[in-house]
Amino acid sequence: MLLSICYGMYAFAQEPLKIRGKVMDSLSMTPLAGVTIIGKYDYAVSNEMGEFSLQIKNSEMVEVSHIGYASTQVQLSGKDTTTWNILLRPSNTELDEVTVRGKTEQREAQETATVSVEIDEEFLHANRENSLMQTLRKIPGVSTMTIGSGQSKPTIRGLGFNRVSVVQNGIKHEAQQWGSDHGLEIDQYGLEDIRIIKGPASLMYGSDAIAGVVDILPPKVPEINSFSGEVNLLGETNNDLLALSAGIQSRKEKWYYRARLTYRDYADFKVPTERINYENYIFELYENNLRNTAGQEANGSFSIGFIGENFKSETFVSNVNAKNGFFANAHGLEVRLSRIDYDASSRDVDLPFHKVNHFKVTHNTTAYLGDHTFQFDLGFQNNQREEQSEPVPHGYMPTPPDSRERIFTKNTYTANVRDMYKTMGGHTLSLGVNSEFQNNNIGGWGFLIPAYDRFTGGVYVFDHFEWNENLHLKGGLRYDLGWLRTKNHYDWFQSPVDNADGSTSNIYLQRASDTSLNFGSFSGSLGLSYIHGNTTYKINAGKSFRMPLAHELASDGVNYHMYRYERGNINLNPEASYQMDVEVSHVASGYSVGISPFVNFFDNYIYLNPTSDYKETLQIYEYTQAKIFRVGGEVHLGVDVTSNLHMTGSTEYVFSRQNSGPKEGFTIPFSPPLIGMVSANYSMGDFSFFKDLHLNADLRIAATQSEIVPPEEVTQGYQVINLSGMGKINLFKNGNPALFRIKLNNIFNTEYYDHTSFYRLIDVPESGRNLSVSITLNL
Q1: Gap between the Cα atoms of 569 and 551, Å rounded
Q2: I need a labelling partner for 436 at 20 to 30 A (CA). Which of 481, 577, 649, 739 fits?
């Protein structure tokens, strides 16, 4: 502290001066952006106009450098108040006997046999919604299970929950994703690249990736001697959302860091109806507000990295904290008798609600040793979730002592190791080991799933053989093993039980027991990719595997969010899935077209099935297994109508059929309907005070979903139109232009239901009309 004070007094005594300047090409005299100017106490980066400002002490020698130009030193003096003009000379360096070979991301995607989609930062900016998965909803084959206005989880081709792995920085995100009302605790700001794999990807990502992967890739490493940042502001009308996110990143030579803070606050969201009919009871809505769906979210992250001669390493720390209300009238019909005035304010969060805090630490190291590339990924995650509701007696349970209905505390430890080795014969071998240990403890007065420990591990070998430049074969084999240890649990209250002699005893019922289960299975895949001119052909077939989870094996309690009694089945077998994917895509001047069908068979698909039995006046749902046949795919088309107008169209469809079990002949729950999307994007260039202005219109069409499994009900089709505009605007004279975006969703305030939405199960329509305005300031 003393040194800081002394340094501050010294700096103040020196009276720093701000020098302004402009950097230009010495030959063309055009401004140069991104030039680094480093002084003794300060540094700057020139903007698009080549302008910069720098603080100096009297007179300083500064270093000026830029890629493709010879570095130079300039003596800047505070005595001269005029703008300094710095000229940089282009520099060409000749390298003898050096061959540089590289592949673009597009080329690498073409050579991969799996069906995947690459999402860049531009797409994320242009399509940002309330949550990450709602932002990705525009991708054909990807949908979301929406949980209110601030939460959602991914589904890929009709499969979700623990069948889709969300990976960030090489570590699988682990929370309580088994719950239909549990969202994804990831801050969508600051993300740059996302890879979505449609279809089984358990060979490389582990057994839970049986339906696909949302792989959030690490941001690009900052440039040497750079500093940058951004501030994102967002406002929305439907739920009166206010959001602020600010991030910075910097790098000297070998060391770099990133940091980000995000805060979101939103009120109850509005639906285009005045009343809801649930369980034959009509709920009147005040001013169309879906009461008690407000929330707050505060996120922070920091990472530090190092780049050496033969390796790079980065450690990432993040914390996501959120509090969200549950639609009060859906959390058990007892809320009808509640004394809480839910309509007093649209911004307060009353009972029932949940709080979640997700703390994550990941460490990634890559080492380059000759022909080998070693990658080490380590991770720790702590997920703390509380679900609170009014203490109301149920069945033989007396009035609980507090509002803490359920508490989940989950710790996850992850370690992955991979060696990628390139041979002389065109083979690129990958050998890897994945391991994960989970410890999940429970609390509260409402039991649903037991406490448990879970371990999963897998070892795999994968080969990418380049037959020639355009023909690539990929295949691999993997073995997974795992065990699950559930812990016993007794009710905190006594229940009457009939004895064999006709008497009655009051005992503490046992809901879960100490049980040990072991699992293991082989999986593998084989694929081919062939590039012929502008056309790419892909085919991939394989078997994947998924261990059953604790709630599927040992749940035994009331799920008040669904107003039903759920019971697990300890005799469930692991899921085994066999799938074949095909993709044909063609990209030419002015248009692109692609089709990606798939065929899938589950030998023992696990799902929650309603029975004819009741407990505590609630219908009992039991986890069961069935043979499932699925077929479907996506088709997309893009056309440049004019030089400024680009149109795209896509459609997706999944057909599912149970071939055994109690619901033989029916589909599976949450099967998405036939969906089509038409988009028109018009580039206006520079217009008025906007630069690079783009206007966009989306039409989303969903057919009626009559393929249901009881007790699901038919979901009617819908058509929803969204409009948006995005461009750059100069808010400050010498600053970088800001990215401005305005979007109007559901412009006709259409009342519709999404078949894959959580709230659809309780007859709640999707959000009504919403105007959102966002601005991104680049520092």
Answers
A1: 9
A2: 577
CA dihedral for 686, 692, 693, 695, sign (positive or negative) = positive
Residue numbers of the domain that contains 67: 2-88
C-beta separation of 719 from 674 below 8 A: no
- Which amino acid would we find at residue 203? L
Q: How is residue 467 written in tokens?
A: 């037959």
The total number of structural domains in the chain stands at 2
Q: How far apart are CA 313 and CA 254, in angstroms?
A: 10
pTM (predicted TM-score):
0.85
Examine the domain organization and report whether 581 and 640 are in the same domain.
Answer: yes
Residue 208 has pLDDT above 70, yes or no: yes
215 and 78 share one domain: no
Nearest to 30 by CA among 50, 44, 53, 52: 50
Q: Which pLDDT band holds residue 423 (cuts at 50, 70, 90)? A: confident
**Mean pLDDT score of the chain:** 88
Contact criterion met (CB below 8 Å) for 211 and 163: yes
280 located within any domain? yes
Give the Cβ contact number of residue 119 at 10 Å: 23
CATH at 17: 2.60.40.1120
- Confidence (pLDDT) at 336: 66
Confidence of residue 134 (pLDDT cuts 50, 70, 90): confident
> Can you list the pairs that 133-140 forms with residues at least 24 positions away whose Cβ atoms lie under 8 Å?
133/184, 133/214, 135/188, 136/194, 136/196, 136/214, 138/677, 138/679, 138/698, 139/196, 140/634, 140/635, 140/636, 140/650, 140/651, 140/652, 140/677
Q: Is there a domain that residue 479 lies in?
A: no
pLDDT digits (tens, 9 = 90+) for 148-175: 666 778 889 988 888 999 999 999 999 8
| Residue owning tokens 């401005």 | 740
b/e map of 144-159 (b: 16 or more CB within 10 Å)?
bbbbbbbbbbbbbbbb
Assign residue 702 the CATH number of its domain. Answer: 2.40.170.20
User: Are 171 and 317 members of one domain?
Assistant: yes
Q: Which band of pLDDT confidence, cut at 50, 70 and 90, is reported for residue 248?
A: very high
Return the SS3 of 486: strand
Q: Which helix (H) or strand (E) holds 105?
A: helix 105-111
Residues 46 and 142 occupy one common structural domain: no
Helix (H, G, I), strand (E, B) or coil at 451: coil
Q: Is residue 354 part of a domain?
A: yes
Please state the length of the chain.
779
Cβ count within 10 A of residue 510 = 11
Both tokens assigned to 103: 């592949």
The span from the CA of 293 to the CA of 275, in Å, is 16
Residue 112 lies in a domain: no
- pLDDT at position 687 is 84
